[in-house]
Predict the structure.
Amino acid sequence: MINHEIEQKTVSGWFMLVVLLVAAVALVAWFIAGVITAHNPAPIVAWTFAILVWAAALGGFFTLQPNMAAVLNLFGKYTGTVKTAGFHWANPFLKKTHISLRARNLNNEKIKVNDSRGNPIEIAAVIVWRVVNTAQALFDVDEFVHYVSVQSESALRHLASAYPYDTTEEGQLSLRGSMDEVSASLTKELQDRVSKAGVKIDEARLSHLAYAPEIASAMLQRQQAEAIVAARTRIVDGAVGMVELALARLDQHSTVKLDDEKRAAMVSNLLVVLCGDRSAQPVVNAGTLYQ
């Protein structure tokens, strides 16, 4: 059952304080003028009842700080929520439960889970949330703070299993390389989970991400190998483009006439220079390619 929040109006606490002070003066005057001089117990009983009512009315005062709310409950029935900061007075028989509407931080502990490739990883998140519906927070779930904590861990586990830790393919999302997209996905999933508790997720971001210790060394070697292969691929693509450009410029300006053998030798030398991992050492050729 979804409880809808009801905005409750209260009486100004300062106004009721003045009323009760005036009532106290009247009760004292009544006691002096009527009860003491009376010879029958009826005025005493009435005055005693009035004192009890006056004392009970004192229990209706309460204060609210900014971004705080008071949920009012009368004998088990929800009557409304007060969100206006200040000094208030309400029915003294109302139970007043104070709830903070301020933003809260939830720093999840590191958990171990498998990513989409089955690799064990450690992951944690920081979540910023706040209560927006006090009726749902109190009456639709049991201990809404604990509820948000449990649902956050569940959503984080599901998120980690939906993405790989890392990838070298362009356009593929990963936990390490797509932080903004992953954070947006975590925020959306977590909001869907905690909406029944009257909670709004302002932000959810990963605070820790690493391979599990038992495979960290092996995965580091794999990352290094993948990085080397990716770098070599880029180098080769660039070198081939530069060789093609050089040959095209030579043919365009007719600087040197190259036959097939000289062209092949030039391509070989350029690729060695451009793709090598060390600086090229020049060699002076005193002869020709044909000797």
Notes: The two ends are 95 Å apart (CA to CA).
